[in-house]
Amino acid sequence: MSGSLTRIIAAALVFALVPAPMALAQSRDTDQALKDLIPDSAIDNAESWALDTDAARQPAPDVAALLGATEPLQALTDIPGITIDWPQTADLPPFKPLDPDPDIALAQQQVDGAVDALDGEQQQVESARNALIPDASLSHVGGQVDLAFSPTDAFPERDELVSRFSGLSSLHSLDDDEDNLAQLTRRARSDRDLIVEILRTYGYYDAEVYQSIVTPQSEAAASAASASAEGGNGARRGPRRNAIDLSKVVVRFDVVPGPQYRLAKIDLGDIAGTGADYETLRAAFGVRVGDPVNTEKILKGRADLAATLGDNGYAFAKVGEPALVIDHEPRTGDLTVPVTSGGRYVFGQVVSGMPRFMGSRHIQHIARFRPGDVYQTAMLDDLRQAILATSLVSSVTVKTREVTPPAAGKPGVVDVDVDMAKAPQRTVAALIGYSSGEGFRVEASWEHRNLIPPEGMVRVRGVAGTREQLLGVIYRRNNFLTRDQVLTADLYAQTKVSDAYQARTLSLVSSIERQTTLLFQKPWVYSAGLEVVATSEREDSTQPRKTYFIGALPLRGAYDGSDSLLDPTRGFRAALRVSPEISRQAGANSTYVKVQLDASLYRPVSDSVVMAGRVRFGAIQGADIASIAPSRRFYAGGGSSVRGYGYQQIGPRDTTGAPSGGRSLTEFSLEARVKTGLMGGAVSVVPFVDAGAVDETTTPRFRDIKVGVGVGIRYQTNFGPIRIDLGTPLNPSKGDSRIGVYVALGQAF
Fold first, then answer.
1. Do 592 and 634 touch, CB atoms closer than 8 A?
2. Fewer CB in a 10 Å sphere around the end CB: N or C, the chain?
3. What CATH number labels 345-422?
4. What's this model's pTM, rounded to 2 decimal places?
5. CATH topology of domain 514-745
6. What average pLDDT does this structure show over 645-656?
7. The domain 120-224+241-256: what is its CATH number?
8. Half-sphere exposure at residue 649, Cβ-oriented, CA atoms within 13 angstroms
9. Mean of all residue pLDDT scores within the chain
10. How far apart are CA 570 and CA 584, in angstroms?
């Protein structure tokens, strides 16, 4: 090399080997060979020393001239001792790339996918790892998602946020085998946005949420070890495994709510002009100036305000969508809810669109409002449901129509128009069954639910069975004179054979009853009736028949404080039935009073267990037992009495061993209704114990109490539980079966 080229290379070495800032002078003890190559003048001023050469002073060569040269470049002079051919003469083998490692390729795909999914947010995720809340309080959402909060910052909505996030999070379950790192990252980013939206719901508009994804180090080490096990030809020596095990990934969100924004102004339209109703309406909205900007409470306040307007006479009130303007400088919000009250109204007349089918007067009986009452939207909804509950219509529309507008401080008047569409009016039904106590039984009926309008139902029914035959007709008038009041008349002829008696009966039973319904479960109900009965009976086939003519005035009052008509879980019920009766047999008259008291209590002891208990007492006062027809006496035993014993099998018996009935009755029942969680919670197991006694005296003597125990299954349906009970007697009498099976609809009590 020339001296100039040597000096230039030496200058480059100076720049490369001497980082700034350093002392520019080298040690005087430096090796002499290095001093000869790089003198002190090069250290003091390397640039000047490098340029102080002949080569540096020469102009740059003409590149175009070089490229256009026609003479080939001369081969470099052979160097003694070097036997390898120079590149221009050597024949090099073609380059063959190595086979890619499967684990490295898979990991690269996951990383590329994750980078694409991050969409430029890699730096944000990396910074989040350095912004984790120290000593954070964690809330676990599933097994692989954590929400972290500062243990010192007050955040009263924390539990609500965690609960809502848990229900909406796309990361709540990470057990999808098809998920990869890119999909996980997308879900995490979506969940971060979700947390921000929930925080804004509570008024935290400056919240910060940091997202981080934690993967186990052991998995990374395992992946590296797997890659090192690769053979020279690309074949794997160990089992294939993913670079990242997503089942062990934990996604963490550090939540910093920041300051909570508050309402600075609230505009509720024209409700200030409603006069005396203003305070009621304003209180219904609930949200006040200075409260947090909680959109959930604002929406609830809007709905409550609309309902309160509708229930206080404002038949045509309109409540628009809330508009919220956020000011980030003072951290406040201005709320506007457009409200037009439209004036106050009272109810006028009810007008039926089908007067011959169901007239206006009858619909007015069904309605819970009367002309002149303050308009209430809830009353219209109730009327619509009550008309549908008659089963006479398939659809119903209830609308208000202005008759008189409000004026001079007086409310306006609205009429209620009811339009209906008929449902099928006739029903044919049949039932066939068998039981060990009653044998075969076939029942059929035909009914027309509006044969005598309005709601005048006529049903013809018949029973053919091993122990019972019946033919009868029933007239039933629903909503008679008032809502849920029923007038019934039942005329039937019946032949019945049981272990206790045989009877041929002709009966006319009429009653007026206030009923409780699924639509409106009433605490108090009553009934009053008249019974006229002619019956020819005998207690067993060895005795002659006796004919009884009976007149009775049965009265019943009941209180229902339970939480459900079909399947109660708490509360209690009580009912008293009093029936004064006169009986004429063989020219002699007997008068007596039959009284029966029923009470039941329901108490939950846990989320899945309800304890239920029942007592029943009965007594017949005023006549000896021989003067009372066998069909009017008390009996016990069976599925709705003492389970484990046959129907009417508890009590005094005659000389043939058949039940003869009594004048007093005592029954007790206790059961635990335990939900199993099977079939979506529809199946329950019910262990029970029942006890009962029947005595010939007018007061219970408890001398011969029978006890039955067993277990039942309940299957819950939308029309009540289906009950299957299996019981056995603990102290059976002669002839009692060891096992009793009972199937029915509804709970035992």
1. no
2. N
3. 3.10.20.310
4. 0.65
5. Porin (2.40.160)
6. 87
7. 3.10.20.310
8. 26
9. 83
10. 45
